[in-house]
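Data availability (excerpt). The following record was deposited with the supplementary files.
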Amino acid sequence: MKTAVRYYSRSGNTKALAEAIARAAGTKAVSVDAEDSALTEPVDVLFIGGALYAYGLDKHLKTYLQSLDAGKVSKAVVFSTAWLSKHALDLIRKELEAKGIPVASETFFAKNMPDPDVLEQAETFARKQL
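Predicted structure:
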């Protein structure tokens, strides 16, 4: 099974979560603003995450989501971190569905910087999605 993990993180919280998910998925977590973030081959599962910034998605993440090719993603799985609101999960889902990309009903959310227990839960979550 081919998987990819993409994320955008300003504080490092979402990056930590993405790296835990990538470990479980046997792949590398790549920031959406990195040169190698584009999906060059189809993936069975794309784990995609970000946080809420000023009540919306960061422009880097939003641009990346809009650039995705539905023909290259069989299923997307959404994750997020935030101080309070889980709204980024809904915003990411909305962007993916607008592109015609199927999105898993189950999501993963961590409040603030994920501690070791939460990172372990994220790995368990990721394995269930594969």
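Summary of structural features: Residues 78 and 90 are 9 Å apart (CA to CA).
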